[in-house]
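To: structure desk
From: M.T.
Subject: fold request, one chain
Message: Could you run this one when you get a chance? Sequence is below, nothing fancy, just the single chain.
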Amino acid sequence: MTAPTQGYRNGLVDLEAGQVSREIFVNEEIYQEELERLFARAWLFVGHESQIPNPGDFFVSSMGEESVILCRDRAGEIHVFLNSCRHRGMKVCRYDEGSTAVFTCPYHGWSYSTDGKLVGVPYFREAYHSKLDRSQWGLVEVAQLCLYKGTVWATWDPAAPPFLEYLGDFLPYIDLTLDAWDGSDGGTEILCGIQKWRVPCNWKFPAENFSGDSYHNISHRSVDLVGIGPSGSNRRDMPELLLARKLHIAFPERGHQTTSYLLPKEAASPPAYQHSSVVSDYFRECEEVRRKKRGDWGRMIALVGEVFPNTAFLARQPRTLAVWHPRGAHETEIWRWFLVDRSAPAEVKDFLRQYYIRYSGPAGMTEQDDMENWNYAHAASRGTMARRYPYNYEQGLGSEVENYEWDGFRVPGVVCDLTQAKSSEHNLRNLYRRWTEFMEAESWDELMSWRRPGRAEAAE
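Reply: Done. Structure tokens follow.
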């Protein structure tokens, strides 16, 4: 592992002053360190089980810049392999998805079964004298894999904590995305395929945006004015949400964060989608069931959030998972999965498909606004003079609290109440706090502060 660039803490990233250097977005050396210190150690989202329902099915994904194969072997077990032949490195799978019995390298013909074993070597007897130990030359598999409510996560680092420990108290916010609308555990599936597109910006621009950038609503004013939001009007004018507390919720020890609404005990949930009677009735009935099933957690409406480092979720409208794949210091490839309830009527799924296309992605009215911002911000930060001046992250400094409680509900995490402040960069600072720790730490022992002696007692 390379030695870290000096001066991350209180140099390039000064959270006490609320300043972050532009260098961490545009510097090539820092980017290379990110690949090794961050993407090679963190848990990363790979895909969804519903994309590979049968033995032999595969989906080619990414972990950082690494191409990986998510596949189901003949016995039905799920694997994630590095998409690179052990002989000369050629991709053994060049299709986005499909089904196969073996992955055969088109360069020299080595072939691998769906459990990663090397099963075919041309001229094995003649060229290798039958002495090549094929058991040592299978596909490289991730160190750890976790299946959680249909989603597939992986890490290259055997020393990383288990995935659920990696999430910690952030887990309920993931559940708000992955569970069915009525609160049924893991009741979602991927709708159709996924969207992929590239933006000329560093991956941290979208990562911080979806961590909870509550300050850029001016960017989406046109969407509000034409009324394509879920209710057919500006969502922020819903009376139910005006009664709620809008919160930035961050988990400093783990680097995850979300922006969520907490409704009063007696307040009705805001209407989800106003369309045909089938659609509106479905979501209204699901809301009623969820509130009864989840109790106080049924009052929490997660808007956006970020699983550190580069996986975002929108838990409500639209309901998606997105990954910001780094493609160099100056480019990001965005992948977006769209979720629907498995048990939803066909009319509901078709309505959501049309709504998701209209709202999100490179052709969606909202996403276009964001892409333009990230593109121009990155380009304007690469110059010699521009790099001398840091970005400002001072909003809400010192206004966050632990053990936040409101109307009988205790919210885990470190919380900034936006009801009065309107905007804060609390969540964004949390992202860069954890980024700094990864860039400076030599091992996972340094990164797992929650395991240190006395930490649990102090938390109580």
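Reply (cont.): Confidence is low (pLDDT under 50) at residues 230-237. Let me know if you need anything else for the meeting.
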